[in-house]
From TrEMBL:
GO cellular component labels: cytosol; lipid droplet
Chain segments annotated as transmembrane: none
GO BP of this protein: lipid storage; positive regulation of triglyceride storage
Classification via Pfam families: Perilipin (PF03036)
Predominant location category: other
Alphabetically ordered keywords of this record: Lipid droplet
Compartments where found: Lipid droplet
Protein name (database record): Perilipin 2
Family: Belongs to the perilipin family.
């Protein structure tokens, strides 16, 4: 077996996002959100304010977390490796993850 600390699997977050069930569900929700913003002017204003707030908070959080992330990088790699192994097992047991949401 491979040494967990030296193996560098694809980022688990990217793997999960690329699962057909997850990506097709995201596409569906994104489409509904966009259509709602387009067709309801009052909600559009609320959504745009919320989006700006999320972007500002996200940028501030990243700036403040960057030093901590850099210090913890080796631990993050190890956690990603273990999460990747766990995701392999989940994918084996739940074949539904490999189907788009319209087929589930």
């Amino acid at each position: 077996t491979a040494d967990v600390e030296t193996e560098t699997p694809q980022d688990v977050v990217v793997r999960v996002a690329n699962l057909p069930l997850v990506s097709s569900t995201y596409d569906l929700v994104s489409s509904v959100y966009s259509n709602t913003k387009e067709n309801h002017p009052y909600l559009r204003s609320v959504c745009e304010v919320a989006e700006k707030g999320v972007k500002t908070i996200g940028a501030a959080a990243f700036t403040n977390a960057k030093p901590v992330i850099q210090k913890m990088e080796s631990y993050i790699v190890i956690a990603n490796n273990y999460a990747s192994i766990a995701l392999d097992k989940v994918e084996e047991k739940l074949a539904i993850l490999h189907q788009p949401s319209d087929k589930v």
